[in-house]
Amino acid sequence: MSGTLVLVRHGQSEWNLKNLFTGWKDPDLTELGVEEAKTGAEALKGTGLKFDIAFTSNLIRAQRTLDLIMQGIGQTGLEVIRDEALNERDYGDLAGLNKDDAREKWGEEQVHIWRRSYDVPPPGGESLKDTGARVWPYYMTEILPRVLRGETVLVAAHGNSLRSLVMILDGMSREEIVKLNLATGVPMVYKLNADSTVASKEVLGDMSKAH
Ligand SMILES: O=C(O)[C@@H](CO)OP(=O)(O)O
């Protein structure tokens, strides 16, 4: 066994609340989002994990979630690396549109394909495969080596940037990934083997509230 990797999606954002496609747009957390981050922090505190380093995106909702977690677990001095490789999937022309309006315009099925399929990009944006093509190399070069050295690493990022990572870690197929939704503020604790495969995964909260 080597180190520990914790992945957490940011708390609810203003645009999650308004039901808008967000992508690389940069809304802040809502009050509920702040509470979700604090709840995630409480759950992490209960594990007694002490982190060596944290990674986040260059978007405020993930950064604030990370700050709230670091405060909640009493590790405000933690080194933080921010990188746009961990940003949310670029939603292209859909960014800023209401998800229900989009369903009315293009149909429920098409919108679901854009949101959850593996390799169909939304117009002008990134598919999950495209997102993975920047998240995986970043994970392999910057994050995984630390975990393999035995470090405990925290990653606060986004629904789809983390789905692309979970797909690989959990060995999910293109069909299975369509059904995976990550809840906001719920930490996933992975223990990795020395060969970088997953030894165990524990979800600290309720993933079923994800949509
Ligand atoms: O709008 C977005 O950027 C994402 C995450 O909130 O939405 P979706 O659930 O469609 O992937």
From TrEMBL:
Keyword vocabulary terms for this entry: Gluconeogenesis, Glycolysis, Isomerase
The protein's matches in Pfam families, at most eight in alphabetical order, are given as:
His_Phos_1
Q: How would you classify this enzyme at the top EC level? A: isomerase
Q: What is this protein called?
A: 2,3-bisphosphoglycerate-dependent phosphoglycerate mutase
The positions annotated for binding substrate are 9-16, 22-23, 61, 88-91, 99, 115-116, 159-160
Highest lineage ranks of the organism? Bacteria, Pseudomonadati, Pseudomonadota, Alphaproteobacteria, Hyphomicrobiales
Residues at the site labelled Transition state stabilizer: 158
SMART domains cross-referenced by the UniProt entry: PGAM
Pathway connected to this protein: Carbohydrate degradation; glycolysis; pyruvate from D-glyceraldehyde 3-phosphate: step 3/5
The record's gene field reads: gpmA
Q: Which organism is it from?
A: Hoeflea halophila
Question: Which purpose does this protein serve, as stated in its record?
Answer: Catalyzes the interconversion of 2-phosphoglycerate and 3-phosphoglycerate.
**Positions annotated as active site in the UniProt record:** 10, 88
Q: How is the quaternary structure described?
A: Homodimer.
Keyword Isomerase (UniProt): yes
